[in-house]
Design brief:
Layout: E1 8-13, H1 20-36, E2 40-45, H2 50-57, E3 61-64, H3 75-83, H4 92-99, H5 101-111, E4 118-121, H6 127-134, E5 138-142, E6 152-154, H7 160-168, E7 174-178, E8 182-190, E9 193-194, E10 198-201, H8 209-214, E11 219-221, H9 228-244, E12 250-258, E13 263-269, H10 279-286, H11 291-300
Parallel strand pairs: 1-2, 1-3
Antiparallel strand pairs: 4-7, 5-6, 5-7, 8-9, 8-10, 8-12, 10-11, 12-13
Helix pairs in contact: 1-11
């Protein structure tokens, strides 16, 4: 495969979601990698004029590096389908479903993928009832947000109303989820393969925005420390979780492992961070795949789709 096989490539980054700044960093790293590999790649900030930019640029395919709403939720994928442009990552359905934490969990429950118990919440919710049902502590999340925006751990019942208010500032849909005490892992997916698992270790209450992007004491253990049999078992469940959410191409599945070594699957990321410090590149490096080769392989998946405009 030669760089010319890709034609002219648009690297979509930025956007207008809460994760814009992270996307710009990821997008620049992807753009640099493609340019270093000799690909005719061009960075585009996905603003309200994105359709005009794509039409004017006469592009052959698109590398999506948009995190959050408008880029990871099926909206941009739908635009690209209409324009007939092949693109990286999951299709419209897989992107929309994976971005929706509530419906992802509902699908997982129907498919036997273990996921923590949860309750939807609104302004009329009996918060004491939620605490009685799920127990304490618990975690509150906006349904359609990434990078842990709007998430908070609740240790006491009287803190739940404020946690709900914080989450509802990001989304009309909010869930409370059973807290799983234990180790946190992530499984990076590339094509049909699950890369080596990463065990995350943070001094914070959970792997929140600060732990992901600001703190310098977050540890990433890869190899994960799991025995081979257990790691392979968790990998297989992660792949099932990924595919049952309609996700394809590449992405990441996050899960917790409780004190009895039971995995509990949390969410799917269909456009994970892509700086050289992000989780997917770390897992790829453990598998012997450098950052530039990882980016190349993700883009190459767009050449393998027959009759579809996604990869």
């Amino acid at each position: 495969m030669k760089s010319d096989d890709f034609g002219k490539v648009a690297v979509l980054m930025g956007g207008q979601s809460a994760e814009r700044e992270v996307s710009l960093k990821s997008g620049q790293a992807v753009l640099n990698a493609l340019l270093n590999k000799g690909v005719d790649a061009h960075g585009i900030d996905a603003d309200e004029n994105i359709i005009k930019k794509l039409l004017a640029g006469n592009y052959d395919r698109v590398f999506i590096v948009l995190h959050g709403r408008g880029g990871e939720d099926g909206v941009m994928q739908g635009v690209l389908e209409n324009l007939g442009l092949p693109y990286t990552g999951s299709n419209v359905l897989g992107s929309a479903l994976s971005m929706d934490k509530l419906r992802t969990k509902q699908v997982w429950s129907s498919q036997g993928v273990p996921t923590p118990a949860f309750r939807m919440m609104d302004e009329e919710t009996d918060f004491d009832e939620v605490c009685d049902e799920l127990g304490l502590p618990l975690i509150v999340k906006p349904v359609h947000e990434g990078s842990s925006f709007g998430m908070s751990k609740v240790d006491h019942a009287d803190a739940l109303p404020d946690a709900y208010k914080a989450a509802s500032g990001f989304d009309d849909l909010v869930i409370a989820e059973q807290w799983i005490e234990g180790e946190e892992y992530t499984a990076a997916i590339l094509g049909y393969d699950v890369l080596p698992l990463i065990r995350l270790e943070t001094a914070r209450e959970f792997y929140d925005y600060e732990a992901k992007y600001v703190a310098d004491d977050t540890l990433y253990h890869c190899p994960s420390g799991l025995d081979k049999v257990t790691e392979n078992e968790f990998k297989q469940i992660a792949l099932t979780a990924f595919e049952s959410a309609g996700a394809t191409g590449w992405g990441r599945v996050d899960f917790m492992c409780d004190s009895e070594n039971n995995p509990w699957f949390i969410e799917v990321n269909t456009v994970p961070g892509m700086t050289d410090h992000s989780l997917v590149p770390k897992a790829a490096a453990e598998a012997g795949i450098g950052f530039e080769d990882l980016v190349w392989q993700i883009l190459a998946l767009t050449l393998e789709v027959n009759g579809n405009a996604h990869a």
